[in-house]
Amino acid sequence: MANQFNRCINFSAGPSRLPEEILVKAASELLNYDQSGCSVMELSHRSAQFANIITEAEKDLRELMSVPDTHAILFVQGGGSGQFSAIPLNLLSNSNESADYLITGTWSDKSYKEALKFGKVKSVTPSTKVYTSIPDPSTWNLSSDAKYFYYCANETIHGVEWQEIPSNVPENIPLVSDMSSNFMTRAVDVSKFGLIYAAAQKNIGIGGLTVVIVRKDLLGKAQPVTPIVFDYKTMADNNSLYNTPPCFAIYMTGLYLKWIKEKGGLSAMEENSKIKSNMIYNAIEQSNGFYYSPVAANCRSRVTIPFRVGGSNGNPELEAKFLKEAQAAGMIQLKGHRSVGGIRASLFNAISIEDTRVLEQFMINFMKANSQ
Amino acid sequence: MANQFNRCINFSAGPSRLPEEILVKAASELLNYDQSGCSVMELSHRSAQFANIITEAEKDLRELMSVPDTHAILFVQGGGSGQFSAIPLNLLSNSNESADYLITGTWSDKSYKEALKFGKVKSVTPSTKVYTSIPDPSTWNLSSDAKYFYYCANETIHGVEWQEIPSNVPENIPLVSDMSSNFMTRAVDVSKFGLIYAAAQKNIGIGGLTVVIVRKDLLGKAQPVTPIVFDYKTMADNNSLYNTPPCFAIYMTGLYLKWIKEKGGLSAMEENSKIKSNMIYNAIEQSNGFYYSPVAANCRSRVTIPFRVGGSNGNPELEAKFLKEAQAAGMIQLKGHRSVGGIRASLFNAISIEDTRVLEQFMINFMKANSQ
Q1: Which candidate from B5, B42, B249 shows the least CB-CB separation from A32?
Q2: For an interface test with B, which of A8, A24, A42, A242 has the most B Cβ atoms less than 10 Å from its Cβ?
């Protein structure tokens, strides 16, 4: 915790660490934003100042991800779980239409189960509880009449991440992807997607804001029972200002996007992400089995790395000791999700290479001190 | 703007002025909350620190409003417009069930129109475009089979506010009320309501958070097409932590509620509200028609006061001059909603008596300088 604000290195899976620079800026103008005489939190969402904030955020996001004009960018409430409902409500025009879901972990599974409420959605692979790899595309049972193909680009709990876009889905079926946990940590060809969404609290902001990037020609077919705030067309037509948005969260995302630009954009984020994740995977691989990653090598996540301490099944005592000593060394939120146990290191955009090196060195030293 | 932060007096209808004390506190701990080593924005919503924040906020709200154990308190996303959908989705178990709506302005009208998607809802009075009074209860066409009776406790645009609970609705029909704009500005007997909701950005916080107080026995009957994040039972069963909540907005509401407690609770807020609104209405009444309130005396809002300058139809030039000179004197966001024109002064909890006096004196001086 050697810094002027006594801050920890926070490896939380979300809400997550923010770049310190943007917190300093937010604090400095919290009582009076840009000579407006108000806090950002007090600005009317119809004010010129807030219009500038949301317009800049959209512009920066569009620029950073090269979002084409064919796609709208929406800032919405409800979290990723809100999108579990909003996607089928908007992309299936009635409950007889179908969509394909590829389930690779807890989040795609939850999304699939929610979508069952709104259409004839189908899991393209048999049900399983083991999520350590991406089922081979040759085994997927795709539907020719699917209105979209859904997958989760990174499963935060299981640490399974797609390294490329699924290539075997027919081109006429829009790809829909939950990118909450690896959004803006790597370059993505947005033009290949029908819809991408990301809850902000991992890589670009704070809880309470979700970004949706959606192909405009898919809008306007929402089911009649779509709640108005979940209707993408309503949100798109109103530049995400149909009703009062989460203004402060949009402001924080705006600051975060400027920070990403300053740091070199997505290519820099991706390069950092490779370096950071390699450090941790190398520590695992070079541990002679003291650390263990259950995930297949070709789909190991760069951003959420679950691992065990003390062998492939984990040693609960050693893992508790690991967490305790890590905390004493200023690293928090390293505990794995309760459904899988062990350790999880989330290496989102605001975790620096230096932060990761602290963890890497800790892992090496802990291994030396605790292996037989 | 005579204060150390050069802050304006912000009469915005929402997002609105916040107590300066809570902004100072938020700024002071923005980089490191309560020695956690993290910003509140970076805290996991499953952390002990955040559990404490949301538990305290609920406890304080329950205490301040004397919310009985029969009622759950939920912190949700989606704004008031989200509740327009969530209410019929949760309180009508299928689309053949009915509910009664009393329309007294733009917001209850919008809510009614959204509810038509989800059930056989009915407006109990004939359609109108003139909202300057509450239709006499003897004219309401109530349904005996309504699952609830809906009304908007204060219409922010039209300035029509209920001074008491509607007394003629049969006791077996739950009262549902949008209290966004007068929430916690007056005492309310919560036990008389099936559901109360309030978007936080007017009287208790910032955009992106909505508080729902709902009678527990009404839960668990949601329609199958209810998006999971709008399912009150799911939210109640998970203490509003089913998914990542708008953590920072909940924290700000927590600070605001502590501020209300320190200031003397709802009785103090109500007393202030009476004093503040009387100052403005007196300035209107004593202006010999220079200022004009279109609202019937028995339902004039204490919190959102629309009025005209230069006679009952308003003088656009005088109104523009009023706004310009008010702004020069440090008062902003006094422009009336575009649908009604004129001036609107929103006097929510964070607007002090002293703030209001500045406006009152300005009104008196402006009248002297500009009347024939």
Answers
A1: B5
A2: A42
Q: Using a CB-CB distance cutoff of 8 angstroms, which residues of chain A are in contact with residue B249?
A: 208, 246, 248-249
Helices (runs of H) and strands (runs of E) counted in chain B: 9, 14
**What pLDDT is attached to residue A129?**
84
Nearest to B41 by CA among A65, A184, A27: A27
CB contact under 8 A, A15 and B43: yes
* pLDDT value at residue B1: 40
Q: Give the pLDDT confidence score for residue A4 in this predicted structure.
A: 77
Instruction: Confirm or reject CATH 2.40.30.160 for domain A265-370, answering yes or no.
Output: no
What confidence tens digit (pLDDT) does each residue in B92-103 have?
Answer: 999 999 999 999
Classify A75 as helix, strand or coil.
strand
The owner of tokens 């002027």 is: A4
Per the CB < 8 A criterion, the answer to whether A81 and B226 are in contact is no
Q: What's the confidence (pLDDT) of residue B290?
A: 97
Of A79, A243, A330, the CB nearest to B229: A79
Task: List the pLDDT tens digit at each of the 372 positions of chain B.
Answer: 446 789 999 999 999 999 999 999 999 999 999 999 999 999 999 999 999 999 999 999 999 999 999 999 999 999 999 999 999 999 999 999 999 999 999 999 999 999 999 999 999 999 888 899 999 999 999 999 999 999 999 999 999 999 999 989 999 999 999 999 999 999 999 999 999 999 999 999 999 999 999 999 999 999 999 999 999 999 999 999 999 999 999 999 999 999 999 999 999 999 999 999 999 999 999 999 999 999 999 999 999 999 999 999 999 999 999 999 999 999 999 999 989 999 999 999 999 999 999 999 999 999 999 987
Torsion of CA A15, A21, A25, A27, to 10 degrees: 50
- Domain A23-262 grouped into CATH 3.40.640.10: yes
Q: What is the DSSP string of A299-350?
A: GB-SSEEEEEESSTT--HHHHHHHHHHHHHTTEE--BPPTTT-SEEEE--TT
Contact residues for B295 (Cβ-Cβ < 8 A; gap 6+) = B132, B133, B158, B159, B160, B301, B306
In chain B, residues with a C-beta closer than 8 Å to the C-beta of A224 are 117
Cβ pair A201:B244 closer than 8 A? yes
- Taking only residues 62 to 81 of chain A, the set having a beta carbon closer than 8 angstroms to any beta carbon of chain B reads 77-81
> Which of A 149-208 lie inside 8 A of B, CB atoms?
199, 201, 206-208
A60, A100, A147, A202: the active-site residue: A202
Q: Kindly list the domain boundaries of chain B, sorted by start residue.
A: 23-262, 265-370
Q: Which of A368, A338, A354, A370 is nearest to A13 (CA)?
A: A338
